[in-house]
Write a structure and sequence with these properties.
The complex is a heterodimer of chains A (about 260) and B (about 300). With about 260 residues, chain A is of the alpha/beta class. Chain A has 2 domains: about 1-60 and about 130-250, P-loop containing nucleotide triphosphate hydrolases (Rossmann fold, 3-Layer(aba) Sandwich); about 70-130, no CATH class. Chain A is about 35% helix and about 20% strand. In chain A, the strands form 2 sheets. Chain A has a 6-stranded mixed sheet with strand order 5-6-7-3-8-9, with helices on both faces. In chain A, strands 2-1-4 form a 3-stranded antiparallel sheet, with no helix packed on it. In chain A, strand 8 and strand 9 (about 190-195) form a beta hairpin. In chain A, helix 4 (about 115-125) packs parallel to helix 5. Classes of the chains: A alpha/beta (about 260), B mainly alpha (about 300). The interface between A and B is medium-sized, with 20 and 22 residues.
Chain lengths: ~260, ~300
């Protein structure tokens, strides 16, 4: 995308944003609440009519939202086939459900599924179209921590199998670091920081470079690590594009990273 | 716009209200607070513990009406309640039997009168419901249509339906038409209001989902909007049943020459309270039957919701 701009009244949420995502690349975007992460994703999904700028996406774009958004009056299988126009929709859908581990729940009503199951169905529905870009809008934030871990594994498996480009919007820095090739920090409507993660997956949380990167990202977000009071002074950035200075965020950094 | 729930309170007849209120449907907002005893299932769908609870509860609910009727019979038999004021239950049963078996020259048998009334109601109710749905779909899906048509419907709705009957008679004569029309309008307004609300009330997040999935406008309407509006529309249907039956009762009493209402007016001239009682009870049964049918539809069509309400 080039020059993406979105205003809400006087507030500029996306400020002339430029971003490239390579095919098959897993990009995570983190940022404080209200910085426009979801707005960006919605613009990419085609849900926002008031955004200006140039946007090019080859092929299908699929979205998984924070709530599973399953149509409650259709069974799980019918949810996955919704909108599919090929003749073999049922077979394809069953295969997708099998991949996410919901094969035996194909005939269930959505309201009887647990949160994790529903989100898996949502993923199946997203993947059934062979998208070239998969947009994930904080899809696991509503799940408990244990389910989240298994969902991470599932997403990685699906990604390795189908290789779509992925843009994951999340407020969880650890999630971003565990999954992505590249982590972007969105701040003041711009990409304030971009960090590549070259470690092979699955990644160990305790890995030193990961720990350092985590501290750095938290610092970028304006949150001081409680273990190291002078962390902001000791870190230097690895690779950054137009980096927002730490001073401008100094006044707000006492708040914890929130939803 | 007044809420559909309020409208239900205004229009329910006393007889209908005393009937079993173990409704299978409650407005979506009350879904979470519904107790298990409140959701009935006479089909074998319920889980073991629920059906056990239901059967037990059902018999208990019959006790107070039975006691009341017994009390009534007692008062009539001892003469405390004179037959000129209110006839005894036994007399009502006897009268009903007589009406069923004898062919009165004026209004035929009870079942004949009932058939006439039921047919009248059936025509008015189905037409009114269909027109209401069509209108609601049009105004629900298009803001332009809403601005154009909805105000007219709301104004018509505010005119007292039962008061407009004499006007209908002036316009359409004293035949069947004014009676059918008044039943039609009785069914139309609750159905329209609720269906419209149901359509507008569909979760916009699902609308977004449809867009993201690339659904065409028609697919969106068929898969998301209409099924989403169904719970509220069915609530409107039940209110329409009540409202149209009330309209039927009144419509039939003016210039009728057949049907239950005619039977009542004839009985009034001869001070035959027992016949009036029987006719009213038959009306009530008609209402309960129609309501039961809607509840069955509700249970079948909204099975996806039912499971959630364990």
């Amino acid at each position: 995308m080039r020059g993406l701009t979105r205003r809400f009244g006087d507030r500029v949420v996306l400020d002339n944003l430029d971003l490239d995502i390579a095919p098959g690349e897993f990009v995570a975007m983190i940022g404080r609440s209200g910085t426009g992460k979801s707005t960006l994703l919605r613009a990419l999904a085609g849900l926002d009519a008031d955004v200006t700028g140039a946007l090019t996406v080859p092929g299908h774009v699929a979205v998984a939202f924070q709530e599973p958004r399953l149509v409650p009056w259709k069974k799980v299988l019918d949810n996955v086939t919704l909108g599919l126009r090929t003749g073999e929709a049922q077979t394809i859908a069953r295969a997708a459900l099998d991949e996410v581990g919901l094969a035996e729940r194909a005939g269930a009503w959505p309201l009887t599924l647990s949160g994790g199951e529903a989100q898996r169905a949502s993923l199946a529905r997203a993947l059934v179209r062979q998208p070239s870009l998969l947009l994930l809008d904080e899809p696991f934030s509503a799940l408990d921590a244990l389910t989240r871990i298994s969902m991470h594994r599932l997403v990685l498996r699906l990604w390795e199998q189908h290789k779509p480009a992925v843009l994951l919007v999340t407020h969880d820095v650890d999630e971003a670091l565990a999954l992505a090739d590249r982590v972007l920090v969105l701040s003041d409507g711009k990409v304030a920081h971009s960090a590549r993660v070259h470690l092979p997956r699955p990644r160990d949380r305790e890995e030193p470079s990961l720990v350092a990167l985590r501290r750095q990202l938290l610092d970028e977000l304006g949150i001081l690590d409680p273990l190291k009071p002078d962390a902001s002074a000791s870190l230097t950035s690895v690779s950054s594009d137009s980096r927002v200075s730490a001073d401008s965020q100094a006044s707000t950094h006492s708040m914890p990273l929130q939803e | 716009m007044e809420t559909p729930a309020k409208k239900g309170v205004v229009l329910s007849t006393p007889v209908a209200a005393s009937a079993r209120s173990g409704t299978g449907t409650s407005p979506p907002s009350e879904r979470d607070t519904r107790r298990t005893t409140g959701s009935r299932s006479s089909s074998g769908r319920s889980s073991g513990s629920r059906s056990r609870g239901w059967r037990y509860d059902g018999w208990l609910r019959a006790i107070s009406p039975v006691v009341l009727v017994g009390l009534w019979q007692l008062l009539s038999s001892t003469g405390v309640l004179p037959p000129s004021k209110l006839v005894s239950p036994a007399s009502v049963v006897h009268t009903a039997y007589t009406l069923i078996t004898t062919n009165n020259p004026a209004y035929g048998t009870l079942q004949y009168s009932l058939a006439i009334s039921a047919e009248r109601w059936g025509i008015g109710f189905s037409l009114g419901t269909v027109i209401a749905v069509v209108l609601a779909v049009i105004t629900g899906l298009s803001r332009v249509a809403e601005v154009a048509l909805d105000p007219v419907v709301q104004i018509l709705r505010s005119i007292p339906l039962l008061g407009i009957l004499p006007l209908f008679i002036v316009w359409f004569g004293i035949g069947e038409l004014p009676k059918d029309l008044i039943v039609l309008f009785g069914a139309l307004f609750p159905m329209y209001v609720n269906t419209f609300a149901g359509i507008r009330g569909v979760d916009p997040k699902l609308g977004e989902l449809g867009k993201v999935l690339g659904l065409s406008r028609w697919e969106l309407i068929r898969h998301i909007v209409l099924p989403g509006a169904l719970p509220q529309a069915l609530a409107g249907l039940r209110l329409g049943v009540v409202s149209s039956l009330l309209a039927l009762v009144v419509g039939e009493q003016i210039n009728a020459n057949a049907g239950l209402g005619f039977m009542i007016t004839q009985a009034e001239s001869f001070l035959q309270n027992n016949i009036i009682m029987v006719a009213l009870i038959v009306y009530a049964i008609l209402g309960l039957l129609a309501d039961w049918i809607v509840r069955v539809i509700d249970r079948k069509a909204l099975a996806w919701r039912r499971e959630f309400a364990h």
